[in-house]
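DM from R.C. (forwarded with permission)

"hey, sorry to bug you on a friday — could you get me a structure for this? deadline for the figure draft is monday and I only need the backbone to look sensible"
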Amino acid sequence: MDKSKIKVCVGLSGGVDSSVAAYLLRQEGYDVFAMFMQNWSDASTTLHGDCEWEEDRFVAELVARKIGIPFYFVDLSEKYRQRVVDYMFSEYEKGRTPNPDVLCNREIKFDAFLEVARKMGADYVATGHYCRKGMRFLDSGFASARNDNSCHFDQVERVEKSDVIYSIYEGTDPNKDQTYFLCQLSQEQLSRALFPIGHLTKPEVRRIAKEADLPSAQKKDSQGICFVGKVDLPTFLKQKLASVEGDVVEVFDAYYAADELYCRQQEILGSLLRSGVELDRTVHYAPEEKVLTSDGQPLGESPYGREPSDEELAVLATPVSYDIKFETETYRSGKKHIKKTRWKENPYGRIVGRHEGAQFYTIGQRKGLGIGGHAEPVFVISTDTLNNIVYIGEGHHHKGLSRFCLRVAPEEVHWIRPDVALKPGESRRQRVRIRYRQPLQSATLFMREDGLFILFDCAQRGISAGQFAVWYDGEEMMGSGVISL
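My reply, with the result:
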């Protein structure tokens, strides 16, 4: 097929990745045009305090001019506010931890932006994501090679006449794989998406940009919330969420020995284990490796010797809640025996400080707590937005930081590969991650009428409602879901 007849719109952000994506497509002979999207303009919310998007647009336009492709501008800020920012506020208000970058890709880059590009005649939209796209033709069993920036345009005519399934594979660069952020894309969105740099490493992208003398060659990678930039999250959230002081409660280890749910969970885990297998019940902390892709090794045998019942899965997926009551007592202090009031000692915990609103804190958070006097770091282990309480625990091995199981509500389960979706009653071994910078973890997926349950082989640190769990088969991303419990 004549590549010059295939029109591709590149989402040009002003960064080096999208710049090289546009450059490569142009070099291959496609009919390429660039479009810069403005999604945020409130400089008062960023730490830099500047209109970063204006600088990004300027660089993007220089890149387009250098490559020799048309450049356009589109303002999607209203849709971004409605679909991404308002969603963020709503989730944090409920005490959940959303991922705006995932929503930005699903709702903006590959929906609102794609719609504008299609109206301008684009056949495809290309971005600078580090991932690879593939396709399978179900009528013949043919599976394409994974990867490529051409997206098998020689088979476009066949795609129109065949039952085709699109796939997303991890990027070649183990330090830059970005499949996690694309975990909510649909087959329709994938059919119009191109990822021209997924087969390259970041150093290779930098080298190409430098050799092509692109204005973005030395530009640093963006940080912070997608299109908003680096922000102080509590300050950002205070635009809509009220700041209300509340107690910070430290939870002691003794609480878990007395908590019925926690004890039941440990009992279930013990009963599931194969003979001779032992589990570490808390995460053995080490700085997360900066390797995002799978290690290529088989999943191996599950440590569990039997399949849990629906009731057991529901118990395992329920996070421990904290209900520690504190009472006061009076005492006399000093030479004059002045009467004062203090909290009675409690074997399960103590009030150690104040906060400005439970909705501003996330599970696993360490910075910004302002709590001293501990030998080890303290972390947020739970938030109670209804009663405005933040619960913390001391040390990386605190029981409140670790869980083995999570649940995704039925309506929140998303299969990128709908042809292999689990049916109620079925289970499957997969690799899973619950945050972007996390190495893939071995787990078993159980589909039940009440949702999808993910039971990990090892304890997981900081499972947070509102975040996305994403599962993989080898290098291929199969599906995702919003963690509900």
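R.C.: lifesaver. The mean pLDDT is 89.
me: no worries. The first strand starts at residue 7 and ends at 11.
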